Amino acid sequence: MSTTTEGSTRRGKKPVGQRAAEWTDPRLGLYKLAKSNLRKIFPDHWSFMLGEICLYSFIILILTGVYLTLFFHPSMNEVVYHGPYAPLQGVRMSEAYASTLHISFEVRGGLLIRQIHHWAALIFIAAMLVHMMRVFFTGGFRKPREINWLFGWTLLFLGMFTGFTGYSLPDDLLSGTGIRFADGAVLATPVVGSYLSFFLFGGEFPGHDIVARFYSIHILLLPGLMAGLLTAHLILVFYHKHTQFPGAGKTEKNVVGMPLLPIYAAKAGGFFFLVFGVIAAIAATVSINPIWTMGPYRPDQVSTGAQPDWYMGFSEGLIRVMPGWEINAWGHTLVLGVFIPLMIFPVVLAAIAVYPFIEAWVTGDKGEHHILDRPRNRPVRTGLGMAWLSLYFVLLIGGGNDLWATHFHLSLNWITWFVRIGFFVVPVLTFLVTKRICLGLQRRDRDKVLHGRETGIIKRLPHGEYIEVHEPLSQEQRHVLTAHVQPEPIDPGPEVDENGVERKINPVSKVRAKLSRGFYGENGQIAKPTVEEYEEITSGHGHH
Amino acid sequence: MSETGSHNDVPEQNLPSEHGAHGGDVAVPDDPFANPGHPPHEFRRQDIDERAAKHSERVTAGLFGLSMLGTIAFIACFVIFPVDKIVFIFPFGNVSALNFSLGLTLAVALIGIGAGAVHWARTLMSDEEFSDDRHSAGADDALRENVEQQWIQGAKESGFGRRKLIRNTMFGALTLVPLAGVVILRDLGPLPEDKLRHTLWSKGKVLINQNTNKPLRPEDVVVGSLTFAMPEGLEESQEDFQEQIAKAALMIIRIKPEDIKDKRERDWAHQGIVAFSKICTHVGCPISLYEQQTHHVLCPCHQSTFDLADGARVIFGPAGHALPQLRISVNDEGNLVALGDFEEPVGPAFWERG
Fold first, then answer.
1. Of A12, A121, A473, B303, which one's alpha carbon is 20 to 30 angstroms from that of A165?
2. What would the pLDDT profile of B222-261 be if each residue is shown by its tens digit?
3. Residue A461: how many other CB atoms lie within 10 Å
4. Of A276, A303, A330, at which residue does a domain stop?
5. Do A195 and B115 touch (CB under 8 A)?
6. Same domain membership, residue B340 and residue B216
7. Are B221 and B107 in a shared domain?
8. pLDDT (tens digit, 9 = 90+) per residue, A511-521?
């Protein structure tokens, strides 16, 4: 390669890469695009690679998914199985199920690709959730990134349904049970439920259409939408430039890090192969969704321990612990026992989606933020995020209540009651505990700034007193611990005007001021040390 | 590939002591909390010691080489192992030789590239940090005014605001045209009509034991057993078998008549043999777990529990109403038969159920 380049340069020709770029530039504006992006600065932090895992597992899903479409038959036509898997020989099944067996047992490498696809889907959604939590707890969603937060949230939401429509395709006993559940949920919709069900299934459940319909949703509609959103998400990350944690030399006006070319091109490109390689290793060694053990779907058969994939577990929890309320009146039935969980499911997800707007409104924050928060410095936000996560996990327990019961020898009924009560209580407790921990950590930061780091060295003074030696922090450490802004709560104004006449304060403003006090009032944050406090302590008696 | 070349001889002035703080704020000496500014760049061993750099180069090349071997091994495994070969591998147990070997060789091929690239980036590419300025996404006043002017001019030239008739009819047309898209979805499925209310059961229809495919006789059903039954004439090969069995599936148990607490249940039974819909009234899973002593049945999907000795009422879980019971008797040949269809819809509740 290098010899040809040298050879052609000697003849007065430019290297082939440069010639290609110069041919393309007048047609695509390549150079202008590259000018601000080739050496674009990206800050470095381990948590910034969580989003990369999402992107790479999505790419892996597309690659393996295209392969699977080459062999999968999205058809519910019935066939009698005569393949190599002996236990199912002579069994009547849909073509969808038979072709999945074919991929698993007859296509060389088919099982591997199927397992990579399924594992990548689980990792994709897990990575999106963890990535979203990273952005949430560090305040990365604040202006100007609220819209990108919504893009990301929508990707998570669509990802869950792409997963559901995907694992429903093989038409095995487990996935058919999941579709049966979906039908029951659709039927519970007031007024139009049975119509929606008949339109979805092309008639009575299960019908002959649902696999083909889910197939086009799973391989075309949802991934198409997601690919678009993902591109927009990445463009905005580039456009806004990445956020950074507080540190030496880092300000709201700059972005400090290493350039895209070469460091991030190599690291991120390499990381794609690492993610792919790890998923391949998992798929080689850990079996997932062995559909041949479940058998084909029949509406009158079921296996015990039926579970959706993990990301649907919290909706499963909602549906399992909800009391079976039904209102029968005027010849109609309102199936609250199914419809309420069906509505809480998007509400739980939407709560986290709209949080950036609620926080900005409550705190009156209109500024741009590029320096990330340390979670402890925003105790209310961190508490709310943890409360949301705890709700999610309580519902996950509810979704697997049978497995908890059999694995830990607990009473199923007690677990269900625990989740029913925990749904309301655990998030509140989690909020209070998290907020206290954050405030405690803030006090610790304050002590560290004012008194230095505990070294663990005990010194005996000449007069017999023992003291622990504290080592002062470096300028950078002091800066990191004090860089955060501590906003004032919103003041709704005095209750009386200058003439002593009672002012009418809008009740909404009152609520807002109260919430704002919750965020930034006395109980919402510990005042960070001031320069005066620091100087008083360090100038007088040096070590404490 | 001369990436190490630039590090061969690091000039003295590039060494840490010569680097001043750059980028970011400059520390104000009397503010103890001020941003100290960008710290000087610290060099790695590879930047100064060509031997260390050579070592990193060899490791990187070794990882890329390992990847090549991985791909070759992948192809070899693809050719060597038959698709149905099962091998025992500790601690994974009996696994498909092809799946196991293809997956691991692919993993080696991929991880080799990934680890090589990351190692290269971390040890040999410059790790000097730079600072870039940020710019607000928003426009300044002049630009905003310019764009607003363009918009106003465009709007004016269109006559959009002035010619209300055009505007309103256009809105009307744009509102109506999606209706075509909605209407065309009509044939996604037939209307429900009363299909959810009826099953294949009707007067005189024989109960077929699903295990033996033979008519069910009272003497086949003993106390403590659970039998699944379907209507006679329903064949697996039938086009609508799945839709029919989804509604008609039955659970048959026998309870001592004096143990049946619900009067209607006793009346609809035959000598203590009761037939209930197998389809859960919650979201439609088939119920299959039966507790002989208490006559409770549990749906394995969401754990709704029904008391079959008491009209199949719900005693736990998310189901909203009792399982429908099928009235049964025996015919002249001594086979169990239905005395009609279910009196209420089976399966999950819906708006028109009433």
1. B303
2. 988 999 999 999 988 888 999 999 999 999 999 988 889 9
3. 8
4. A303
5. no
6. yes
7. no
8. 888 898 888 88
Residues of chain B found within 8 Å of residue A368, distances taken between Cβ atoms: 136
* Tally of structural domains, chain B: 2
**Domain of B231: which CATH number?**
2.102.10.10
The residue segments making up the domain with residue A7 are 2-31
Dump strand ranges (E) for chain B: 86-89, 93-96, 130-133, 207-209, 227-231, 250-254, 273-277, 289-291, 296-298, 305-307, 313-316, 325-326, 328-330, 336-338
For residues B78 and B225, state if they share a domain: no
Are the C-beta atoms of residues B142 and A262 closer than 8 Å to each other? no
The strand pairing partners of B330, in sequence order, are: B336
Report if residue A345 sits inside a domain: no
Q: For residue A403, is it within any domain?
A: no
Query: Two tokens at A381?
Result: 């936000």
Beta bridge partners of A103: none
Together in a domain, A164 and A247? yes
Assigned domain for A47 exists: yes
Token couple for A63: 């690659």
**B222/B328 same-domain check:** yes
Could you tell me if B280 and B301 are in contact, meaning their C-beta atoms sit under 8 angstroms apart?
A: yes
CB-based contact B226:B216 (threshold 8 Å): no
To the nearest whole Å, the CA of A202 is away from the closest chain B CA by: 4
Same domain, A61 and A181: yes
- The residue in chain B having the minimum alpha-carbon distance to the alpha carbon of residue A370 is B134
Does B144 fall in a domain? Answer: no
The answer to whether residue A115 sits within a structural domain is: yes
B 34-93 residues with CB < 8 A to A: 34-39, 78, 83-84, 92
Q: How far is CA B317 from CA A414, A426, A466, A500, B55, in A?
A: 11, 21, 64, 60, 65
Q: Domain holding A77: CATH number?
A: 1.20.810.10
Burial A141-161 (b: 16+ CB within 10 A, else e): bbeebbebbbbbbbbbebbbb
DSSP conformation class of A456: E
Q: How many domains does chain A have?
A: 3
The residue length of chain A stands at: 544
Average pLDDT, chain A: 91
Residues B204 and B346 in one domain: yes
Mutation target to probe the A interface, by most A beta carbons within 10 A, among B100, B188, B198, B213 is: B188
Q: Which domain holds residue B24?
A: 5-123
Cβ contact, residue pair A271, B118, below 8 Å:
yes
Q: Are B349 and A326 in contact (CB under 8 A)?
A: yes
- Quote the CA–CA distance of A301 and A297 in Å, as a whole number: 8
Best of A36, A104, A174, A187 to substitute, by most chain B Cβ atoms within 10 angstroms, is A187
Measure the CA–CA gap between A324 and A340, rounded to whole angstroms.
10
For residues B200 and B334, membership in a common domain is answered with: yes
Evaluate whether B244 touches A141 at the Cβ level (below 8 Å): no
Closest Cα of chain B to A461: distance in Å? 29
pLDDT tier for residue A496 given thresholds of 50, 70 and 90:
confident
Whether residue A282 sits in one domain with residue A192: yes
The tokens for A62 are 């597309």
The burial class, CB within 10 Å (0-12 / 13-18 / 19+), for A3 is exposed
* C-alpha triplet B278, B280, B283: angle, nearest 5°: 145
Mean pLDDT of B23-46: 76
pLDDT(A79) > 70: yes
Give whole-number Cα distances, B261 to A166, B252, B305, in Å: 46, 17, 17
Which whole number is the average pLDDT over B150-160?
92
Phi, psi for A50 (deg, rounded to 5): -65, -40
| pTM of the predicted structure, to 2 decimals | 0.91
Q: What is the C-alpha separation between A85 and A88, in angstroms, rounded? A: 6
| CA–CA dist B228, B278 (Å, integer) | 8
